[in-house]
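Consider today's protein:

***
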Amino acid sequence: MLQNIKSYYLIKLIYTFIEEVQKLKLVRYNKSIQKNLDISIINYRLFKGNYIIYESKGIGKEYNGYDDTLKFEGEFLNGKRNGKGKEYEKFNGELEFEGEYLNGKRNGKGKEYNNDNGNLIYEGEYLNGKRNGKGKKYDVFNGKLKFEGEYLNDKEWNGTRYDENNNIIYKLNNDMNGRGKEYYEGKLDFEGQYINGKRHGKGKEYDWFNSKLIFEGEYLNGQRNGKYYNDKLKFEGEYLNDKKWNVKGYDLFNNILYELKDGKGLIKKYYYYNNTLIFEGEYLNGKKNGKGKEYNNYGELIFEGEYLNNKRHGKGKEYNIMIY
């Protein structure tokens, strides 16, 4: 077939700033060959673009018009990739894709490969050159499954993501818009609603170690608003930017430890073991700020005065206590 191809070379260059002489190949098809193969195309470009050499009707190889490297081999229709074929990487010539084409674009089922190590990185469905439909994504280095589900315009849309140990990380819905689930080391960590990949709306968090519920409520741009648990109810109220704002806190016996209002207010805090009052005073942003009183674990007053960011600051009084 090559004897039917005329090659021309341009020896002189128009632009004087180009130091080396470059060859220009013009490739086009003999009229009789085109007629016999029922091909109505002209395949040639100057310095760039591709040309096709047909092995039989509708079957051929596509080359880079500048350096003659193989870019594609497979089925053609009217000069465009149509049907099954293989696509090769421009620089090293390694297999990059094999699958189905329509009007020159990937359409239908196909497989993508990493052209450095040959590992399969994707297998699934395509539409107009992009991943659309069901598919699987694999790690470029170790070949392990990373995602399985549905794609929309090259984005992971509905499906499951995995870590390197094949544990579930996420279960996606509409590209993290709507309901979804997060996992840690294969155990449920969160379930609820998302907007643009952030927790937004109703949701629940779990302790990944024992799968117990630790939070339920609402989220705003990833920040909590709701109830917090530690086996039993621990916090109940409202959060602002992940900080306790209007909240009641409880101990393991469901006794109220403290109350917050607008991130501040008169607070009572109790000793964990015997429910003895150990502090009462003013809080701001979850810290002691303003006037307050401290007690020891037996309920005896040891300090009263002013605080700033959880530290004694300003006027105050300390008291002697009995030694037990």
The helical segments are 31-37.
